Task: structure prediction
Amino acid sequence: MKKIALLLLCLATLAVQAQNKNAMRKLQLAEFAISNLYVDTVNEDKLVETAIIEMLAQLDPHSTYNNAEEVKKMNEPLQGNFEGIGVQFQMIEDTLLVIQPVSGGPSEKVGILAGDRIVAVNDSTIAGVKMSTEDIMSRLRGPKGSHVKLSIVRRGVGDLLHFDVKRDKIPIFSLDAAYMIDKRTGYIRINRFAAETGSEFKEALKKLQGKGMKDLVLDLQGNGGGYLNAAIDMANEFLNQKDLIVYTEGRAARRSDFLARGNGNFRQGRLVVLVDEYSASASEIVTGAIQDWDRGVVVGRRTFGKGLVQRPIDLPDGSMIRLTVARYYTPSGRCIQKPYASGKGEDMLEQYHKDLTERFNHGELMHADSIHFPDSLKYQTKLLERTVYGGGGIMPDFFVPIDTTRYTEYHRNLVAKGVIIRTTTGYIEKHRAELKQKYPTFDSFNRKFQVDEQLLADLRALGEKEKVKFDQEQYDRALPLITTQLKALIARDLWDMSEYFQVMNETNESVQQAIRVLKEGMYEKVISSWKKMMN
Result:
């Protein structure tokens, strides 16, 4: 019987291989016929590229094709660096305004300052010529060790300044902010999971622990994911040895388990993770592991639900196919991926990306009780056997509704036209030295600085100039948000992103809810009281 079964298995395998060969032969013949017999000349590369794109479009929303140039741009943010001159900049009225030179970078080394305006690159004028940001960046970037000549206008200096900048590797940080909320509570915000995220996070963790941190608020709001290894490294900081972080499994991919090493630096202490509907992939892996092991609590809104594993397949011309080969599952067995209709090409993608709009229309982003899961999607956490839910994405332990009251059409138009950020950059350009003298530390700035009526008048005037119609009722409703954003952007320009988030987080409902969870005993109701019962 065993021999017969083995023979049948061999015959089935040969039949599948023959079928696959027939399909491949069919595709090759079609391409050969078109390229050699078609009435007009065809671009074979484009033909094959289009065929690949169309094939992948029938599979799932995350199997994709990228040409060589797209692959290069796609990898830059995740690899943690690019090669260039090292400045943060903003386009103001067709001129490149330096917000800040990167600390220790090429521009800072030659003396370029915040507030400088770059008007020419290698004798090519970039100011006042309506050049795209992409074109300007392509001129500023270049191979490490190469030189670029910059012409700069500096406030208070009559003559044009000229600098020769030697390009270098410029780090791209995935950590936006790390600071102490109070004497025992630290806050860390991660914007992506990149090659250096693990080391950045460990360094921030160590610094905050040195300042007395006992509790941590980990902010993954809006974090779209990145490298799996970076997620594993972060989750390892919180979990015990051999705790399952995530596992992957697919039709042709056997189950692979990813375990904690048990050498993390924050395996004790209260932990709150912040997520929202834009937290995806690697963010969901970390959040799911923390929730499933009852290591901390999750605050915010249901995450995006991106749990498909892509295998990169490099093609000879530098292009790449990212093919879905498996799915991600949390330690309790929840599939992170939200449902999608396969095999429908553009319709599938359109429907998939409409999901967040549907969540809003159904009230899920505003009301926790609008979310309903069948019993089949109930799972239990690993230690305390708390009920958690599958069905795509990670459901928070504490729901925070999206605040629609402050966001008006008037405010959206100000943001879309760049009015808010341009108002602050103009203000900083005029008052930088005065502000630095008046507020020598961020703490003094945060306590004492107030957005005055003149700054708001400048904002409204610039809005009118950009044809943003003024609406008094909408302006009054959005004013708390507008003043917070103005203050935060000024703080960012005077100091850095960490200070920007310190200001913004004073009105961020998820951050404020996390603080309440830690201070008002809500954390213990979810975690500690359960642990006492288990013991």
Remarks:
- The mean pLDDT is 86.
- The radius of gyration is 27 Å.
